[in-house]
Specification:
Blueprint: H1 3-15, H2 20-27, H3 31-39, H4 46-56, H5 60-68, E1 75-79, H6 83-96, E2 101-105, H7 108-117, E3 120-126, H8 134-144, E4 149-154, H9 160-164, E5 170-173, H10 178-185
Parallel strand pairs: 1-2, 1-3, 3-4, 4-5
Helix pairs in contact: 1-5, 2-3, 4-5, 7-8
């Protein structure tokens, strides 16, 4: 299955305001071909990926990266310095994203070291951490990998404005809920296949 690529393609097409038929017309293919690309049952060849990048006005490397990463299990991390809360959040994220490898960290530095050795697709970060703020941690993770999606978790809504200035994909008020996670997944900067409902 090529669902990482298909999710990425669908997100970009929608952002450009194109229907599947309009994209098919621009690509000189049938609508059913676009449907197959977006459901993950077929992957376009290199020439079509190059043409897609021109038609959609996106970097060809973005589409090639998505195609190459289609079958990998994404790494998802949660960073919260309160073990009890972290232990309650982990099963919720695993339930929503059964295809992901989900790991929790109570220490920001441990999360950064993990990110250096493993490509992190999504990081849920508590903003108020003991040794480093979640905002600082976000910046550090994005230095390691600019394609990491970051969603902040906090009990304090007043952090929202500061959070958006760090390049994050989303902001959630605690407690973490399955529906809340699903809503955040719709708005990721770099979508990936989660293996969950509607994926």
């Amino acid at each position: 299955m090529n669902l990482f690529f298909s999710d990425n393609l669908r997100k970009i097409r929608i952002e450009k305001g194109l229907s599947q038929q309009e994209l098919a017309d621009l690509m000189y293919v049938t609508r059913s071909t676009v449907v197959r690309w977006e459901t993950g049952s077929r992957l376009p060849d290199a020439a079509k990926i190059s043409r897609l990048s021109e038609v959609l006005g996106t970097d060809v490397n973005t589409l090639i990266f998505a195609a190459a990463q289609s079958n990998k299990r994404p790494n998802v991390i949660i960073v919260d310095d309160r073990k009890l809360i972290l232990s309650g959040e982990l099963p919720i994220v695993e339930q929503v994203m059964p295809n992901a490898d989900v790991m929790g960290f109570t220490q920001p530095n441990e999360a950064i070291e993990f990110a250096k050795d493993n490509e992190v697709s999504l990081a849920f970060l508590d903003i108020e951490l003991r040794n480093m703020s979640g905002l600082e941690l976000c910046r550090s993770l994005l230095e390691v990998n600019p394609r990491t999606n970051v969603v902040y978790l906090t009990a304090y809504g007043e952090y929202a404005l500061d959070a958006w200035s760090t390049g994050a994909s989303g902001f959630m008020l605690k407690p973490l809920t399955p529906q809340g996670v699903k809503e955040q997944l719709k708005n990721l900067r770099y979508p990936f296949w989660t293996g969950g409902e509607g994926a």
